[in-house]
DNA sequence: TATTAATTGCACTTCTGTTGCATTGCTTAT
DNA sequence: ATAAGCAATGCAACAGAAGTGCAATTAATA
């Protein structure tokens, strides 16, 4: 039983061949992925299977969904210490206007926001857009 | 020439009947609207006309688009003092999980975020979700 | 009034996300 | 080992939102 299989198994996800492949793929990318990205990588696989696999990962708390404002949902593996499952891990996301990649800035938490009287916060989403480190290196 | 006509005109928008109606409608709502909301309000009008009207408003800088994470784009009139046209007005948006309305918190600017080495911010979007003042009043 | 430009209406397309259902594969109890 | 039962996959189709092309109107201007 490999590392990944154990990870899936311990989160109540049956480690099928497809799931292991998708997990591995997501793990080796350091940016968030759209369903179409995964589709590109596994052209022989069914879109629905990929979709449901990612959704399963999400439900089981090993992947979180990101709305980066591009109109396409992105997904990224939860880093160790990410508490998505519990009450939302409020780290911020960065979208590069140059390379179009979306990156989890896991270390950067969303600052506390004080709201007007009567408003109660339950969740928050902060996306910063600009130029990423790779793109600004040139 | 009415107030609204002047407003449109001074922003380079020809004040047609339809445009005046839509502007008025958006002005009397205090929450952000989806295209479908406007569609509901003007059932006899063509969707495309409504769509293009809002897009025109946006291009001319009197409306801004909001991605509140629901998957449906929202639009709201720019308040006096909103500098969308210039470099983005970084106020935050609140989405109520109860009444499903999205509100501009024009007074609440997005706090400065310091990013890791190499990252350069150009824009930011912060959406807080929770219970709005009207809903929490009960 | 004739010419030109902007606006609107209608039809149709694309893209993303999502579901229903039959089929296949895996697990477990007999 | 076999059969029953449940989970995963493949295939088809749908829904909603956003957007485009083009013809028909309507408004502005010469
Ligand atoms: Mn993330
Ligand atoms: Mn706003
Ligand atoms: Zn980049
Ligand atoms: Zn509310």
From TrEMBL, chains A, B:
Keywords: DNA-binding, Metal-binding, Repressor, Transcription, Transcription regulation, Zinc. Zn(2+) binds at residues 96, 99, 132, 135. One of its GO terms (molecular function) is DNA-binding transcription factor activity. InterPro entries: FUR (IPR002481), Fur_C (IPR043135), WH-like_DNA-bd_sf (IPR036388), WH_DNA-bd_sf (IPR036390). GO terms for biological process: negative regulation of DNA-templated transcription; regulation of secondary metabolite biosynthetic process. Its cofactor is Zn(2+). Binds 1 zinc ion per subunit. Belongs to the Fur family. This is Fur family ferric uptake transcriptional regulator. The lineage of its organism: Bacteria, Pseudomonadati, Bacteroidota, Flavobacteriia, Flavobacteriales.
């Amino acid at each position: 039983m490999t590392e990944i299989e154990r990870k899936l198994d311990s989160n109540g996800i049956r480690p099928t061949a497809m799931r292991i492949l998708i997990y591995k793929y997501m793990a080796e990318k350091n940016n968030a992925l759209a369903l179409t990205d995964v589709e590109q990588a596994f052209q022989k696989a069914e879109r629905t299977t990929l979709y449901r696999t990612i959704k399963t990962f999400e439900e089981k708390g090993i992947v979180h969904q990101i709305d980066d404002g591009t109109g396409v949902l992105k997904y990224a593996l939860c880093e160790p210490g990410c508490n998505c499952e519990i009450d939302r891990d409020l780290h911020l996301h960065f979208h590069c206007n140059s390379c179009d990649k979306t990156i989890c800035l896991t270390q950067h938490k969303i600052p506390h926001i004080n709201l007007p009287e009567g408003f109660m916060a339950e969740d928050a989403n902060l996306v910063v857009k600009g130029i990423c480190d790779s793109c600004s290196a040139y």
